Amino acid sequence: MGPVNALGQAWAITKKDLVAELRGASTIVSMVLLGLLVVLVFNFGTDPGAKDVTLARSGVLWAAFLFAGVIAVGRSFATEKEAGCLDGLLLCPVDRAVIYLGKLVGNLILLFVTGLVILGFFTVLYNVGLGAGSAGLVLVMALASIGFSAIGTLFAAVGAGVRARDALLAVFIFPLLVPLIIAAAHVSTVLLAGQGLGGAGLWPWFLVVYDVIFLAISFMTFDFVVEE
Amino acid sequence: MNATGYLAAAYSIIWVIIAAYVVYLGRRQAGLRRQIEVLQIEMSERDEPGEQG
Amino acid sequence: MDKGPARRDLMVTVLGAVTFFFMLVALLGALVWAPKEATMGDVQRIFYFHMPSAWIALGPGFTVVFALSIAYLATGRLKYDRVAAASAEIGVVFTTITLVTGPLWAKPAWGVYWTWEPRLTTTLVLWFIYVGYLLLRSVAGDGHRRARLAAVYGIVGWVDVPIVFFSIWWWRTIHPRVLTSSGFALDSRMTAVLMVSLAAFTLLYVFLLVLRVRIESMSATVQTLRFRARDRRGGGV
Fold first, then answer.
1. Is residue B50 assigned to a domain?
2. Is residue B32 part of a domain?
3. Interface with A, mutate which of C171, C173, C174 (most A CBs under 10 A)
4. Is the residue at B52 inside a domain?
5. What is the mean pLDDT of each run of 10 residues along chain A (228 residues)?
6. Secondary structure, 3-state, C37-66
7. Total structural domains in chain B?
8. pTM score, whole prediction
9. Subunits close to B (at least 3 CB pairs below 8 A)
């Protein structure tokens, strides 16, 4: 099976999931709402007068991202398991890696879009003038979404096997995501403070490396998770 | 709490944790041993021909 | 076959005794023989049990989980999974000891219970990963299914920990703290005690591991026996 064919199949899986998602829309709606609420709620814990965006502030951004993300990946296998579709999916002569890729991209898109909405809300609430920083922020959001989705999709499959709820899923993946959060928070703080990506040093590259490592590991171990 | 107090607390806690864990292991093992014995007796009873019931 | 279990029990008891002996020697060394540290005083003695605890938790404890997770996925032999599970549980114990003794040392020595110092913070993350591993095992049923899922988690977790450490360390060089938990100079007596303590803790790890693996095996035996009993009850007349 050629690579193009595999990508096509993966995309088919992604499309199927996304279409199902958009029809019901409950997942992405709850993701966005939860994310916005987290930003809102955390605001009451910080100094209302301060204008500058400190590390604590951008930490809120990523906390919101994490919670929204857990909802997304938690759903990506849940509906299948409920409907008994996972077996059907596995019966297709499709490489497991293709299934993983399809689910991954689905989660990625959901998370990235949600993340951008949260980011927008955040910059409005904190009156951040973006300008040159916005491209960088979109990039960070993309890289963070990739990393989160890589690990999240893998563990969603793990969780689906054991009927893990969202909280349990969060317990599994949050410790693993610590480096991602550190990097994303740092870069976004730099960008929100008005400096360009250059001010963030090598941290964006750290995100790239992190994503590559965990994408690789997840691909390699996914087979073992899904076999029956 | 002065410095020595912290020292005493730290070492006490270490020993308590280790001791508690060893006791926990011991009890689990004893429990499992009992379960195995019971199950083995059950098995051998079933093997016996002409058993009542 | 008859002699087997008895001999095993004897060896385990001997191991236990040796471990206990080493731990006592280490304790005496730490509390009595080692010199008092110049700036921190007696509180520094916590170090002799805190550090080996951390090394065992982070080193053999977790790496055994990783290595045996791979071994299980490669071979399918449940024995590897059992030892991995045992090592994880013991790892939690040692990590907890590290996280408890760390702040108890930090408070009198540096004035604060906690600093977001890379080693301590990574240990905290490690604790969460270990506990997550055990939690996963507890809801994953048993046998091969549980072993597979746990193995995946064990592998991903182990890869993650050095990355966590590095990211925190790097982050902290950018956001320096006034307080660093860097320590003190080690003189030769201190090093000697540290080595003995490390040996003691390694023995303790092995001893606990042997005990815990035995429990896993017995647990599996109970499962098998229960299965057979159920079969017979169902099949026979």
1. no
2. yes
3. C171
4. no
5. 76 84 79 86 68 71 92 78 58 76 92 92 78 84 96 90 79 94 91 81 94 95 83
6. ECCCEHHHHHHHHHHHHHHHHHHHHHHHHH
7. 1
8. 0.88
9. C
